[in-house]
Amino acid sequence: MYNVLEIVIWGYVLLMEVEDMLKKYHCKNVSKSGNVTLPNQYRQNFGLHPGDQVEFLLKNHSIIIKHAEESSLHNKRYISQKGAVHIPKELRELVGIHPPNEYCLFIDEENKRFILILERELSQNQGVRNHSFLI
How many structural domains comprise the chain? Predict the structure, then answer.
């Protein structure tokens, strides 16, 4: 996988490769509670089950959700029985995820992670291709 520096150096072609790795699952309004339901099909593919912990990483106005590593000091939350996770308030505030804003959920199957980004960020950056949260 390429890192952000390599993408800046090599430019558009690598950004296209990164974009092709993601699937846009859906966009919806942010709930007041800050819960996001992770799609069951992808949770199962990623080995995530109710009661497992996920960790949250903040990257350039996006939140990356992935299986928590034991040694990680990042924010962690448990997956509920229905597959929802509570996004920590401090991260929601930093990214601007609050009602009535709309967020989009992307699936990164190669890296087994979910990525949340505000819809307005996608609009301002002409979509996924120009957004560096992908790495």
Answer: 1
Q: Which domain holds residue 15?
A: 4-134
CATH number of the domain where residue 38 is located: 3.40.1550.20
Average pLDDT over residues 129-133: 45
At position 94, the amino acid (one-letter code) is L
Cα–Cα distances in angstroms (integers) from residue 7 to residues 11, 109, 128, in the given order: 5, 20, 14
19: CB partners within 8 A, 6+ apart: 128, 129, 134
103 contact partners, CB below 8 Å, separation of at least 6? 27, 28, 30, 36, 97, 116, 117, 118, 119
- Who's near 131: CB < 8 A, 6+ residues apart? 60, 61, 62, 117, 121, 122, 125
Under a CB-based contact definition with an 8 Å cutoff, are residues 115 and 108 in contact? yes
Q: Is the pTM of this model over 0.85?
A: no
pLDDT above 80: residue 91? yes
